[in-house]
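Notebook p. 47: complex prediction with iron/sulfur cluster.
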Amino acid sequence: MVIAESPKTPIIPITEIEQSAFCQTDDELQAKSLEEEFQAGVRWQKIPISYLKAKPEELDARIAEARARLTEQVVILGHHYQRNEIIRFADFRGDSFKLSQFAASQGKAESIIFCGVHFMAETAVILSQDHQRVILPNLTAGCSMADMAHIDDVLDCWDDLTDVLPNSTTVPITYMNSTAAIKALCGREGGIVCTSSNAAATFEWALGRGDKILFLPDQHLGRNTAVRFGIGLDEMIIWNPFKPLGGNSEEDIDRAKIVLWQGHCSVHTRFSVKQIEEARRQYPDVNVIVHPECYMEVVQAADANGSTETIIKTIEEAPSGTTWAVGTEISLVNRIAQENPDKKVFCLDSVVCPCSTMYRIHPAYLCWILDGLNEGVVVNEITVDDDTKRDAKVALDRMLQVV
Ligand code: SF4
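Predicted complex, structure tokens below:
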């Protein structure tokens, strides 16, 4: 018998509130000094004053010089959503899947500087070797979606599901965009981690092992993937962590095949069917491609959808002269446009909004980290406790085997 508890008060993650801080109506997203960027009212990690005032050109030269002195002691990983001023220093760039494969496969550099967000750096800690350290240049670079799933709420949900469904096997799948603690829960409970590159493969894996899936934290990726397997919307429920039993009855839970955590990406939920219609009105031959973190209606209205790597590859391989409207993060869309001058590539959303947390990796932070390493000082090392690491690695290793 499950006893309903009083609802908790919803808290909007600070990362979600800050999402519009750097939105603008033109496409010139160029770094300013950190002092100037702070004028948007954002609250990022404190940094010594000399870095705060440095102009982007000065930082560029200082980073190049500091990076060269460190040679093979460091490797810089850059997620595709990073600013150009950071990506130009990345030894490897990729989406979270590709970068996690990279972190698992190389053991040379003693410092991995992860220009991405917190959950990615944690994943690199879990997958890298013991002699390596992982550094996140700005400790406040989180992810609003990951912030929507707290381990205590997820543990409550898991206990509720186990109580309501004593005779069922629920397989937990967590999207890469979640804390190490949630990945560890998946490792302990027969679950797996997925990324947008391999979500379908992990669904297939999970459906072969249990009768239900708990998918978290992104309800949209979960729903879009389930639909591909022919699972109806009436077989999916949303789990709202602020309500008893996630806002569902015991019968709803019993009937459901997929339990979707109520989380979303504040960047990808900006895209709408109306924007797709507008793009088609302006460019009748346009190809629309979106990320599966978008709403289901948007994914279904698009011509194609796929992970960050799929979007890049699809446009790269498309014939010259084609037109592409893209529904994903603007730093990446701008870069694809620059790297494919023979095609017209633009963002579906005319208001330009970078992922506010990826944007927190300002060049001043990268410079600070590199200068520190040159002086033998490690700033912003990310750590994960041994038990969490062990259990999370189980779920991550399963992911790396399921392609
Ligand atoms: S784009 Fe969305 S999911 Fe990705 S890091 Fe930013 S907020 Fe998180």
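Notes: Residues 32-144+357-384 form a domain with the Rossmann fold fold (CATH 3.40.50.10800). Residues 386-401 form the longest helix (16 residues).
Next step: compare against the earlier run before touching the bench.
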